[in-house]
Amino acid sequence: MPTPTIASAPRTVLTRDEIDGFDRDGFHIHEVLFSPDELSVIADACERVAQRQYATGTPPDARGWEPEAPPQAVCKIDNAWKSDPAIAAAVTDERIGHIAAQLVRANGIRLWHDQYLRKPAAGGKIVTWHQDWMFWQCIDRCRTVTCWIALADVTSESGPMLFLAGSHHLGLQMQAKPGDWTGEHLSPPPADGQRVVPVVMRAGQVSFHHGLLMHGSDRNHSDTDRVSLVTHVMADDCAYRPGMPHVCEQAMRRYDDHPAAGEPFRGPQFPYAWREDSALDHAARGA
Ligand SMILES: O=C(O)CCC(=O)C(=O)O
Prior knowledge:
Elements: H1 16-25, E1 27-30, H2 36-50, E2 62-63, E3 75-78, H3 85-91, H4 94-104, E4 108-119, E5 126-130, E6 144-150, E7 161-164, E8 182-183, E9 196-198, E10 206-210, E11 215-217, E12 226-235, H5 247-252, E13 272-275, H6 276-285
Antiparallel strand pairs: 1-10, 2-3, 3-4, 4-12, 4-13, 5-8, 5-11, 6-10, 6-12, 7-9, 7-11
This protein binds 2-oxoglutaric acid.
């Protein structure tokens, strides 16, 4: 794989081939978007939240790990952006929003939720094959993209995500049971003849995958932690469809401004990561 360079102004305009590749395969792996300095600020903020230090005074929406957990446990924290401005800036970063908007052809991209994931060296769990949107049936259409920011290098030994290329074309294949995202076995992919692609990345690269793409990951067999901040985003015409409970659904009700059934997601729970109209405003002002 070619060594990615850290551009001073990273490229966010995708080529026709990259967009076609996403349509065909269900994922796009971008070159480095975040500099080492940015990564270090983000990683420090994520670890502070993991250690229950909340710069804003607000806890994350869900904690799947506590500092008392065994050293081999996966750290998983949802909506840490509420607890630290550095994380909020990263998960609503315009670079990510702009790329996601091109992939799903949206005029605006909102955050659905974030996840801080640390899969410890020589540890962690298997993440079984799944499609993200199966957990998100309260989003009425699958115009979602998962944007996985590598906060450290990801190697073939450290339990990279595995993508089943093209599997998003199969539609929704699986049903979610609450909490079922880890298991003891990484069972064979549910469709034969499709390519399994390990998402090996340098720190600062970001992978983008479609909400219907089947993916999973193995344990971390390396001697370094696999660390990422994941921002799950959606096109801003996605609407709220009650039925399957989700942590974001409960959380949005803490704010006066939230969607009713059938209305597009809005309000402080779902901040914008990119909007075509504000990008145009910037351009008009020469910013
Ligand atoms: O990081 C992993 O191993 C799995 C993450 C995942 O399933 C996702 O971000 O959609």
